[in-house]
Amino acid sequence: MHGESSARKRAPKGGDVTAMPNPRPRLNAQGQVTSWQVTPPTYYVDGIAHRDPPLGAKTKEQLRIKWKQWWANHERGLSRTSALMTDVAEFAAWYSTEILASEVAQGKKSETTENRFNNFLKNHVLSKSHGCGHLRLGTKGRAEQQLNFENLKGWVRRMARDGVGIPTQRRAVWVIRTLGKAMEENPSRSGFNFDPTERLEYPKEDLHDPKRMTMNEYKTDMAVTMALLDAAHEVLPAHFAALWDVANGLGLRRAEIAGLKWSDFGDDGYLTVRRQVLQNSGKYTVTEVLKSQRQRKQLKVRRVQVMPEVAAALKAQRQAQATLQMANRKAWGKVGDSGREAGDWVFSGDGLFMLPTQLQYLLEKMRKAAGPVASRMTLHKGRHDMASYKVAAGVAPDQIADEMGHANAQLIFSVYSHSVAREVSDSAAKMQALMDAMRAQARSDARAV
User: pTM value?
Assistant: First the structure.
C-alpha cells in the first residue's frame, strides 16, 4: 500500500507494529556486553525503500526511548510525504472499526459511546447534504476540498442551514474533534502531525440576542408544541404519526415510548406503563418498569389517562400499522440478527420493538420540518408539557407525580411549573380576594343579626 511500512512483517498477527524487537548485545574483546543495538524496519514511500542505520544505546531502557523517538520521527516523515487515507470518510471508517471498536472491546469506552459516535458520524459528518466527509486529508485537492478550519466552519454553517439543532451540532462537532485528535496520533494515515480540528469550537447561541428564548421558555412555549405536532403529522410515516401526541399527551420517557404495546391501553381510557427499552451490556432489551431501587420485586403500577385527542391519533396510527403489516405479513415480526423482541408494539415498522435511538431519528425529522423554533427540543419537552398543563388545570401534585413516575410530588412544582407559575399565582390571588370578601360579608351579616 502507498506509504505502508514493511515493519508489519516483523510483528505477529494482531500485534503492535511499533513494538521493539529483541535487541542484540554488542560485546567487547573480553566477551562483555558494552551496548545494545536494534535495526529499524525498512519502509517504503512512493515505492522507494528507506532503511535507517541501526539504533544503539548502553542500556535496553535507553534503547527503548530511542526506538519510540524513531517511530515518532518516522510517522511524521511519512505524513509529510504521503498519507494512507484519502479523506475524512475513509479515516472515520478506519477509526471506528480499528480504534473505537477495540477500545470498547477492552472496556476502555462504553458501547453507548460507540453507538452515539457512529450515529452522528453517519447522519451529520457523512451527510450528503451538509456533511464534511468529502474533505481530503493532508494538503491534497483544491482549497475547498481540504480539511482545514475554514471548511469545517462551512460545515457547521451547512448544518444550521439544514435546520440541525444546536445540541445535535455540538455532538457532531464532538465527533469531528475526536477524529482530529486521532489524526494527530496517527500522522502516517492522516497526513497531519497536528490536530486539524483544534480551532473548531462547539456551536453556541447568541446569549445577547433579545429574541433568544431560555430553555424553560422553549419547553413551555405553545408555538413550539404545535409546530412539532403539525410536523409529526406531516413528515412521519402514518404508522409513526402519533409520536408527538404520545410524548406530549402521556408524558412518557423515551425508553417508555419505545416499550409501549397496544395491550397496555385499557378500555377504561387509561394507559398502564409496564416496560422500558434499555441498554444492558451493549444490547437493547425490554425491561419491566420497577417501583424503585429499594423495592425491586414490586412492579410499579402507573396509570395515565389518555386524552381523546391522543386516543384518536393512536387509532389512526394503529390502522396504518395494520395496513403495513398486511403488506409485509411474511417478514412481519421476524427476529433476525438484531435479537429484538417481536410483539404488538405501538411504534414499530417491522413487528419488532424500536430502539430509543430510532425514535431520536424520527424526532430529528420533526424538528427539521418544524423549523428553527424547535431546533433545541427533545422528546422530554412532551413530558414537560403534560406536567405543566396538569399543574395549571389544578390536578393534585401527588396524582401528577404518580402518572409521571416521580417518587417526590415536590418535583412537580420545582421542575415543571415554570410555564404556569404566573397563572397559578393569579388564581391564588383571586381566590384569596374571594375568600376575604366572603369573610367580610359573613361578619357584616353577623353584626346585622
Answer: 0.48
